[in-house]
């Protein structure tokens, strides 16, 4: 198919990335450890670890896991917020030849049980603060080895050894728990694992591109949560694609070390790839933010660093840009503000640009694509209202329900082909067949259109589309426009049953102006939407339901309505 986007690539970005630069993610990480051992790999709560520290700690962790009898391909789950132990665990599990299963630490017992059972996890590395959830399900899952981490475990790692460290600024709110032991199950402290594993030798398996690196579970908003099988070659490919796209801009830091703000959770594919793995490849320091909901603490941490790269979702951009203390920070080093995970709204992007001077560069991807598939150019002057161009070595086709490509400018399903596309869903061949085409495209379930330059604009999720008297209404369009109203802080649009029109639009709003009234919004919508798009119902709320990544959960609003 034609590739109009290639003519609009920025200078220095190739059409094809070197997607086979490394045999595995483990090889990529070990190369990073060798290239910049003395650089800071991370900073968390004012404590730093160098790349050589992460190298030694992850080797010890991997060797210990091997000593427990785990074999190549076994699944190891990781359940914690953004702490140094997370980066060590990812590297250790992968280097030992095992598969990383990222787990949301705020999962309920039901959600945790499903994921551990579905993945067949043999081991779990969990922060003790969340062990009470594991306690509820431990007898019903196959986990045989539990590694218990504490917040301060690595905050006292100094020059190659663990030392006593008082976590003065961390509230220890660990619920009571008791994990049952038997002959087949062990529970070991993270510090003991590191100390014991440090005296062992890591056996390096011959990991190939076809070995599984991650089981990355989808959010489950469309049904039962399922694991996207990401092979080592998928993840390496996406890292090299992102490297090709970002490098010309990020090289502007010169001899200084690149600093990435890692506030999005590492269990999410966005932060996992862009912060943890791409950061390691580029020799960057990740500024780990364990709790971004603590805005005051978050802003204080930012104030201590000259940060260069800021990946975030719309809600986080909006929250920070509205904070007076954040507005007073030094943004002179900020080169890239990556927007992803959900649609970035124009009002938020304009507010962020006004505060920071750095435009939001929106991209697009999914767990199933490792994740990045498209991105705007990094040299844009302002928000583009698109998700950009397909990144190197990626093809995008816009297709109708029959699988035929639609003309440029017409909406259809966004279909993605490239080396970053998953191998399938874990142990779900039927569901894999539903999303993969015979010619190798992944059907995203998102509705979009491509213009003559190759730029793609998201119209909406297929499942969220509202059908009003036979006309398609896309919630993203409603939300983008309404969010520009000066009295609106956040909003969400859903379809609800309607006797006359089949469905009607219901709009939920969080006010930025307490005097805002329903008539104000109705009048605004009359001025901005044709009749069938106008919300029939308007409801004000103090807050909107969100996932732990910050996505507004339309499903919950639809159910409530």
Structure in words:
- The chain has 561 residues and is an alpha/beta fold.
- Helices cover 29% and strands 24% of the residues.
- A hairpin with a 5-residue loop joins strand 22 (442-450) and strand 23.
- The radius of gyration is 23 Å and the shape is globular.
- Mean pLDDT is 93; it is low at 164-171.
Brief summary:
With 561 residues, the protein is of the alpha/beta class. Helices cover 29% and strands 24% of the residues.
The name CATH uses for the topology of the largest domain is Rossmann fold
List the uncertain runs. 164-171
Named at the architecture level, the CATH assignment of the largest domain is: 3-Layer(aba) Sandwich
Q: Main beta sheet, described?
A: 8 strands, mixed
Total helical segments: 16
Q: Give the percentage of residues in beta strands.
A: 15-25%
Categorize the overall geometry.
globular
> What's the arrangement of strands in the largest beta sheet?
9-6-5-3-4-10-11-21
CATH superfamily descriptor of the largest domain: ANL, N-terminal domain
Q: Can you give the mean pLDDT?
A: 93
From the alpha carbons, calculate the radius of gyration and give it in angstroms.
Answer: 23 Å
Keywords summarizing the entry:
28 strands; alpha/beta; 8-stranded mixed β-sheet; 29% helix; Rossmann fold; 16 helices; GMP Synthetase, Chain A, domain 3
Summarize the helices and strands and which ones pair or pack.
Blueprint lengths: L24 H11 L4 E5 L2 E4 H17 L7 E5 L4 H12 L3 E4 L6 H11 L1 E7 L3 H7 L7 E5 L7 E2 L2 E2 L23 E4 H8 L14 E6 L9 E5 H19 L8 E4 L6 H14 L2 E4 L6 H8 L6 E4 L1 H8 L2 H4 L8 E4 L6 H11 L3 E6 L6 E4 L13 E2 L4 E5 L12 E6 L6 E2 L3 H7 L6 E9 L5 E6 L4 E3 L2 E3 L1 H8 L5 E11 L3 E10 L6 H11 L8 E4 L13 H7 L1
Parallel strand pairs: 1-13, 3-4, 3-5, 4-10, 5-6, 6-9, 12-13, 14-15, 15-16, 27-28
Antiparallel strand pairs: 1-2, 7-8, 10-11, 11-21, 16-17, 17-18, 19-20, 20-22, 22-23, 24-25, 26-27
């Amino acid at each position: 198919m034609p590739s109009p986007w290639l003519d609009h690539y920025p200078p220095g970005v190739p059409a094809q990335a070197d997607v086979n630069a490394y045999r595995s993610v483990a090889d990529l990480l070990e190369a990073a450890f060798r290239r910049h051992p003395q650089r800071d790999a991370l900073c968390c709560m004012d404590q730093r670890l160098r790349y050589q520290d992460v190298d030694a700690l992850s080797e010890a962790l991997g060797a210990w896991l091997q000593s427990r009898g785990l074999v190549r391909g076994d699944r190891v789950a990781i359940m914690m917020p953004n702490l140094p132990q997370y980066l060590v665990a990812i590297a250790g599990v992968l280097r030992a030849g095992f598969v990383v299963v990222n787990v949301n630490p705020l999962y309920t017992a039901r959600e945790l049980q499903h994921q551990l059972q579905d993945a067949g996890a043999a081991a779990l590395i969990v922060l003790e603060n969340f062990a009470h959830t594991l306690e509820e399900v431990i007898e019903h899952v196959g986990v045989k080895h539990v590694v218990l981490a504490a917040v301060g475990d690595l905050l006292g790692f100094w020059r190659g050894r663990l030392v006593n460290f008082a976590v003065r600024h961390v509230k220890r709110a660990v619920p009571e728990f008791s994990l049952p032991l038997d002959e087949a199950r062990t529970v070991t402290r993270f510090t003991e694992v590191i100390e014991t594993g440090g005296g062992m030798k890591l056996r390096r398996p011959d990991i190939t591109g076809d070995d599984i690196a991650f089981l990355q579970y989808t959010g489950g908003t469309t049904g039962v949560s399922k694991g996207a099988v990401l092979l080592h070659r998928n993840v390496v490919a996406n890292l090299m694609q992102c490297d090709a796209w970002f490098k010309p801009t990020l090289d502007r830091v010169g001899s200084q070390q690149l600093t990435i703000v890692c506030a999005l959770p590492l269990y999410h594919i966005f932060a996992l790839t862009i912060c943890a793995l791409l950061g390691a490849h580029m020799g960057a320091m990740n500024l780990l933010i364990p709790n971004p909901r603590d805005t005051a603490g978050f802003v204080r941490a930012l104030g201590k660093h000259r940060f260069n790269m800021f990946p975030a979702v719309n809600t986080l951009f909006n929250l920070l840009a509205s904070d007076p203390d954040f507005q007073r920070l030094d943004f002179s080093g900020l080169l890239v503000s990556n927007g992803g995970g959900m649609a970035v709204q124009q009002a938020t992007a304009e507010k962020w640009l006004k505060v920071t001077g750095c435009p939001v560069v929106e991209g697009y991807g999914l767990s199933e694509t490792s994740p990045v598939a498209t991105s705007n150019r990094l040299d844009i002057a302002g928000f583009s209202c698109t998700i950009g161009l397909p990144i190197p070595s990626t093809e995008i086709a816009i297709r109708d329900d029959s699988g035929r490509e639609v003309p440029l400018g017409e909406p259809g399903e966004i279909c993605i082909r490239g080396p970053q596309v998953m191998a399938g869903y874990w142990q779900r061949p039927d569901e894999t067949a539903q999303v993969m085409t015979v010619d190798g495209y992944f059907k995203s379930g998102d509705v979009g259109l491509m213009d003559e330059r190759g730029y793609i604009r998201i119209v909406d999720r297929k499942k969220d589309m509202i059908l009003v008297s036979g006309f398609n209404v896309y919630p993203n369009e409603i939300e983008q426009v309404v969010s520009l109203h000066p009295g609106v802080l956040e909003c969400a649009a859903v379809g609800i049953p309607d006797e006359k029109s089949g469905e009607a639009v219901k709009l939920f709003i969080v006010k930025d102006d307490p005097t805002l009234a329903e008539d104000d919004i109705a009048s605004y919508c009359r001025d901005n939407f044709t009749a069938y798009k106008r919300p029939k119902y308007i409801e004000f709320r103090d807050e909107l339901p969100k996932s732990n990544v910050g996505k507004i959960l339309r499903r919950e609003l639809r159910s409530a309505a």
